[in-house]
Structures are given as structure tokens and as C-alpha cells.
């Protein structure tokens, strides 16, 4: 992250707000470090307690990653409750004069939000991920949380909204 930011003339200290789609470590693993630098963290209500007290999140991920946990994710730090914002599903909120609309999009994880900003949907993992070597987006289905019926409902919900572009996660847009 630091390298990508530096290429744009920025640093982690320039990040003031983070809108998490969900709390899996590949999306939220640095939330504690960014919060220590002053960032405000926005997250689904079901995800907030795990950022404040990340012990269960760390234990769950450690079962998957084992000895590679620290090498892959580094230290997972808690986020102070005062820096956590829990927007309601389908209720706009402002950051400065920018409007965001969180949409509860379960399936990949029950605590998953997609965010609409202007004419773009930041879909998180529910909208698919880009994987090198594949022409099309892939659907990440992590056990045990993936729920196919809820994922389809979320895709139907997003399809009904009016946005012009979708920003999937992982790799470039």
C-alpha cells in the first residue's frame, strides 16, 4: 500500500477516511494501523465489534494462514471505538461534501457493504474480484461464510441501482 501511495505522491498519513466493504484481512487488515494515524473507519454494524476487539478475527485467520499469518498480514491492531462509524444500510452519509450510500450486500460475508459514490459502485468482493490471467471477474466464495442465495440477492439489489461503473476489488479497476 505504501508503495502504491508513494507512486501518487501520497503516504498513509494522507488517508483520513476508510470505507470497509467487509472485515476480511485483505480488506481490513490495515484498519488499525490507519486508525492510529488518525483515519476514521466506516464498517458494517456486524463488523465493527471485530475491529474494536480483533482477537476472534485474528484467531479465525490464524487457523487458515497458520505460521504465515504474521508474514502475510503483519500486526492486526484494534480500532478505537471513537474512530469507528457504522452507517445504516441504504442511508446516505457525508464525508465533507462527498455523499456515500452503503448497501448491505451479503453473500461473500454477512457483514458486507457495497458503497455507491457518484455514479460508481464500489462492490467489494460481492461484485467479483480480478485475478491475474483471467479475463472475467471471479466470485470469491470463502468457506464457511459464502451463501449463494444471499449473494444472488445482493447482485439483484445492485443491478436495480443506477450507477454507470463498477469498481471491483483486487488489482486495478
Any overview of this molecule?
By secondary structure, this protein is an alpha/beta fold. It folds into two domains: 1-86, no CATH class; 89-173, Ribonuclease Z/Hydroxyacylglutathione hydrolase-like (Metallo-beta-lactamase, Chain A). Helix content is 28%, strand content 22%. The protein contains seven helices and eight strands; from the N terminus they run αβααβαααβββββαβ. The strands form two sheets. It has a five-stranded mixed β-sheet, covered by helices on one side. The longest helix has 12 residues, at 148-159. The protein is globular. The two termini are 15 Å apart. The mean pLDDT is 93.
List the helices and strands and how they pair.
Layout: H1 2-7, E1 17-19, H2 25-28, H3 31-36, E2 40-42, H4 48-52, H5 55-65, H6 69-73, E3 84-85, E4 93-95, E5 98-104, E6 113-117, E7 120-129, H7 148-159, E8 165-169
Parallel strand pairs: 1-2, 2-3, 7-8
Antiparallel strand pairs: 4-5, 5-6, 6-7
Amino acid at each position: 500500500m505504501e508503495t502504491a501511495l508513494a507512486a501518487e505522491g501520497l503516504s498513509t498519513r494522507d488517508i483520513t477516511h476508510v470505507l470497509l466493504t467487509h472485515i476480511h484481512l485483505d480488506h481490513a487488515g490495515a484498519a488499525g494501523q490507519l486508525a492510529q494515524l488518525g483515519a476514521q473507519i466506516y464498517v458494517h454494524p456486524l463488523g465493527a465489534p471485530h475491529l474494536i476487539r480483533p482477537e476472534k478475527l485474528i484467531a479465525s485467520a490464524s487457523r487458515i494462514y497458520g505460521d504465515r499469518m504474521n508474514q502475510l498480514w503483519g500486526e492486526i491492531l484494534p480500532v478505537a471505538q471513537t474512530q469507528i462509524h457504522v452507517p445504516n444500510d441504504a442511508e446516505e452519509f457525508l464525508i465533507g461534501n462527498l455523499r456515500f450510500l452503503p448497501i448491505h450486500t451479503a453473500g461473500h460475508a454477512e457483514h458486507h457493504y457495497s458503497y455507491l459514490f457518484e455514479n460508481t459502485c464500489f462492490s467489494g468482493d460481492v461484485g467479483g474480484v480480478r485475478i491475474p490471467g483471467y479475463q472475467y471477474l471471479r466470485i470469491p466464495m470463502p468457506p464457511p461464510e459464502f451463501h449463494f442465495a444471499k449473494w444472488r440477492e445482493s447482485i439483484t439489489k445492485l443491478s436495480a441501482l443506477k450507477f454507470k461503473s463498477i469498481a471491483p476489488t483486487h488489482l486495478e479497476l
